Amino acid sequence: MKSLNKIPTGKIERAGQLLKTGLKVGTNYVSYYGEKLVNPSLTKDKLHENNAEDIYDGLKNMKGSALKVAQMLSMDKNIMPQAYVEKFSLAQFSVPPLSAPLVRKTFYNQFGKFPEHIFDTFSQEAIHAASIGQVHKATKDDKTYAVKIQYPGVADSIKSDLAMVKPFAMRMFNLKGSDTEKYFKEVENKLLEETNYQLELSQSERFANACKHIPNMIFPRYFSELSSSKILTMEWMDGKHLSEYTKEPQSQEHLDQLGQALWDFYQFQFHHMREVHADPHPGNFLINDDHQLIALDFGCLKQIPEEFYTPYFELVKPEILNNENAYLERMRKLEIIRPDDNDDEVKLISEFFHELLSLFTKPFRQETFDFSDATFFAQIANLGEQVMKNDTLKKLNGNRGSKHFLYINRTFFGLYNLLFDLKAKIITGY
Q: How far apart are alpha carbons 402 and 308 in whole angstroms?
């Protein structure tokens, strides 16, 4: 993959890149509707493929939060056509890397030294490249390190990037009015935290220490003396990304073992730590030769305040979910039902979410759950389609719910998708 000698960092430069991408997408639509006149049976599959290709090609050279948003969208496989999911998921660990001169310049700006003056060896090419940073392999005194280097200008461009994508996001998620700002501020704050590698280092050490007791979970060690606000150095861990691992034949025993580790890891975070690794995509997990799960990248953590945690997890309980008054009380605490909703709106929203929650919380109400059950995921997808096809429900669904839903729901969708990829049967222990 061709490396980049420059990343657009200025607001005008980045807006120009998005504009060029938008023109390509517009051309694709003109071409599609022209062909549709000749061939009325033509589907949108090719249009989706072309648009996904052009949008990803535009974003991958910009890197930063614009590409990160694409990565976030790829985690929910029901929100957009499969062509977008497949293309945007590349942002997790496979984008064009920085060139060697730009890497050396970044190193010198951070340490006043070049990589070869700090390490005995340092790979010229990146081993992995994602939306915010890329990883190089290095050695020093018989130890092997993974050195994550942040792309120049990423933190500075977050606000302007989000301002540019805001109109599209508002249309996609049916967000309207001034109340939308709380959602965008939540995303902005989390993206800014992800660009602070000193914060990530402390978070990584804290999580590794707190979760080390979980069977079949492994965490790398981190090295503060070889890290800075833009460079993070950790122990090199050998393994395959979860998405690579699941493409090869594996025993059900090993798949279940990994799925159980993943489930236990997240339940401990939710219920004991009250904060969670909120970026559960395949690029953030490695699997070693002993079929153990290695957790990486603790840059995106979501704290769970008590006023959200209690009603959110109480809705798992059948005695709450099936008691109308108790159910509606929790729905109001979570801002799903709003003070300005009339009786008909309350009825429609409460009935839809009751069906959704009854399905989505099913794993918690059983001693074991088989995440290879395609019917379970198809039912979730069908409920998502109901919202998109029902204009009344779609209209009511905008600007609804606490801001904390953004990253908590993202975490659960990501976790469920990883468990589905593993086809794991696990003990939920609820």
A: 8
Span 100-129, average pLDDT: 91
Question: Residue 143: what are its φ and ψ, rounded to 5°?
Answer: -110, 145
Residue 9 has pLDDT above 60, yes or no: no
- Indicate the number of domains in the chain: 2
From CA 170, how far away is CA 189, in angstroms rounded? 18
Of 60, 92, 124, the position where a domain reaches its end is 92
CA atoms within 13 A on the CB side of 61: 20
The pLDDT score that the predictor gives to residue 204 is 96
Q: What is the dihedral of CA 364, 370, 376, 380, to 10 degrees?
A: 50
Closest alpha carbon to 398 in 358, 340, 343, 354: 340
Q: What is the spatial distance between Cα 129 and Cα 300, in angstroms, rounded to a whole number?
A: 17
Per residue in 230-244, pLDDT (tens digit) is 999 999 999 999 989
Query: Which residues are bridge partners to 232 per DSSP?
Result: 148
Element (H, E) at 241: strand 240-241
Residue 429 lies in a domain: no
Give alpha helix (H) positions in 153-270: 154-172, 181-194, 197-210, 242-245, 252-268
Structural domain containing residue 66: 11-92
- What pLDDT score was predicted for residue 32? 47
> CA-CA distance, 309 to 313, in Å (whole number)?
6
76 within domain boundaries:
yes
Interatomic CA distance for residues 288 and 348, integer angstroms:
48
370's enclosing H/E stretch is strand 368-370
Q: How confident is the model at residue 91 (pLDDT cuts 50, 70, 90)?
A: very low
- Which of 61-65, 119-123, 188-192, 340-344 comes out lowest in average pLDDT? 61-65
In a domain, 147, yes or no: no
Supply the angle between the helices 405-422 and 252-268 in degrees, to the nearest 10.
170
* Last residue in a domain, options 92, 119, 152: 92
Nearest-CA neighbor of 327 among 355, 360, 365? 355
The answer to whether position 218 is within a domain reads no
Q: For the chain, what is the mean pLDDT?
A: 82
